[in-house]
Amino acid sequence: xxxxxxxxxLIIVGLIICPFTVAAQNENRQILPGVNRNGLNGKxxxxxxxxxxxxxxxxxxxxxxxxxxGSGETMSGAFTLKNMGSxxxxxxxxxPEGWKIxxxxxxxxxxxxxxxxxxxxIHVSANGQILNLSKSRTSLYSVEIKMTAGTGKLICxxxxxxxxxxxxxxxxxxxxxxxxxxxxxxxxxxxxxQINLNPERMDMGSVxxxxxxxxxxxxxxxxxxxxxxxxxxxxxxxSDVPIGVFKKGKYISFVNEEIRGSGxxxxxxxxxxxxxxxxxxxxxxxYPSSTASxxxxxxxxxxxxxxxxxxxxxxxxxxxxxxxxKLINEHDWFADQKEKGxxxxxxxxxxxxxxxxxxxxxxHLDIEGVKVLGKDIVRGxxxxxxxxxxxxxxxxxxxxxxxxxxxxxxxxxxxxxxIVFHSNGGEGIVEVFVEVVPxxxxxxxxxxxxxxxxxxxxxxxxxxxTKRLSQNAYVKDGIAFRLxxxxxxxxxxxxxxxxxxxxxxxxxxxxxxxxxQLQGYLFEGAIGNIATSRMTNTKELYRWYNSTTGHYFYTxxxxxxxxxxxxxxxxxxxxxxx
Length: 578
Hints:
Elements (H helix, E strand, L loop, with lengths): L1 H22 L33 E4 L2 E8 L3 E10 L5 E8 L3 E2 L5 E5 L4 E9 L4 E5 L2 E14 L2 E10 L1 E11 L4 E10 L7 E4 L2 E8 L3 E10 L5 E5 L13 E9 L21 E4 L3 E3 L2 E4 L4 E9 L1 E8 L3 E8 L2 E9 L4 E8 L5 E11 L2 E15 L5 E4 L2 E4 L4 E8 L6 E11 L4 E10 L6 E9 L2 E5 L6 H6 L3 E10 L6 E9 L4 E5 L13 E10 L7 E8 L4 E5 L13 E9 L1
Parallel strand pairs: 2-12, 14-32, 27-31
Antiparallel strand pairs: 1-3, 3-7, 4-6, 4-11, 5-10, 7-9, 8-9, 9-10, 11-12, 13-15, 15-30, 16-29, 16-31, 17-27, 18-21, 19-20, 20-27, 21-26, 22-25, 22-27, 23-24, 23-26, 28-30, 31-32, 33-34, 33-35, 36-37, 36-38, 39-40, 39-41
């Protein structure tokens, strides 16, 4: 019996101890953390299945909308790559699926403590290939995606049509795989907003001191999207204004706003004395336009060179240029669309009177105007140009920008400036030119010519010289030209000498005769004031000399009133008169 009792006691003791052991085990019969195992040193044992923290890739944003890209344009964006875990994380990408890889097979980089950046640059080719697809015409553009990270680069290309596109780019890394997206829209230039300014060069003409003049700029949008534009801030400190010459060249427009829309071109009033139109020139928006052969324009100018501005149309053409009656250029062109251009006729000329003749032999051509080189153009002071409106949003309508120029604080001379337009359809610049003239410029005096053989006497006061005129039997020829009153800015005295032996009169604004041999000539004083450089509405007074007789002859006729046949030769410009 004692043996049986011992067995029962052992079973009871086992049943009491066993639940505690079972409770300390999980269903997989694993020792839970925090429980002693075998009582080794009384320490806890860590779960053998737990591992160290791993890298985790995070990309922001997950999608970038690059926006609208026109043909020939490039736009870009960037993704940020971060490791949200621990350690060093490498990553790579092979670019968007279905694109042709030009260089490396994949772009790779490493993210450590700082973020890494994946830059995306998308370029659309300038010219699209037009395809006929199912009775509709569509354009395919070569599109290039350049991806850069660190010093690495991956370039992919694909032909895409106009419209919206969304490309997926897979990134593989130790921190997981991610797919990012790039969205963009391809449009032709006709769909993009595009700023167009007319005119691009603004000739404000002549303005009296203290007066103001106003003209308009026409702003249009050549695209379908809304054009958002503004005029660049022209406010500046006086200390910021450059001192001295702003530009070398005075722009002269051939536009005649009074005959705009009439169909036939005639020069504006202020150019009638310096411009001859030969042939049948049509009028296009006020500018001379030629489609017929042998139409020509002759323009007289004073300067060291000349630039011509013109517009050609989709055809072949020829513009022949003569300078001072000598052929210097035959400008041939072939345009597949309407294009604006410029042609340098000459530079480095002697600063004197010249004549350019433009002959349109073939093709359709508009002549916008010319720039006379050698004129010093000074930038106007701050606030001298006021523009309204200053900004706007334009779709299909035409905006008229008012340009008001104030000459209140300007001394006589040539001035210019640039009006800069910023827009989502490109930048535009309008050049502004003006001549400020003194109030006294309008005060002129008539100068009469009297002749006796080879002797020519000019006087502004025939009554005071009645005795002289009568004794020498001078014949009155009429008004020869007009001089300016004394003290007119830009003018000086015009002196007269007389040689009683030769019976000849000589004239010059230099009281010493300008280097001429005046032996035997008697000084007779000033007959008025003459301009020593070309001013508004002035013309050249030409001097001719007969070496056989020693006589001088003066006229505003560039051909010398047939003086060549009488033995005279051109001897320079005596000055500028009205």
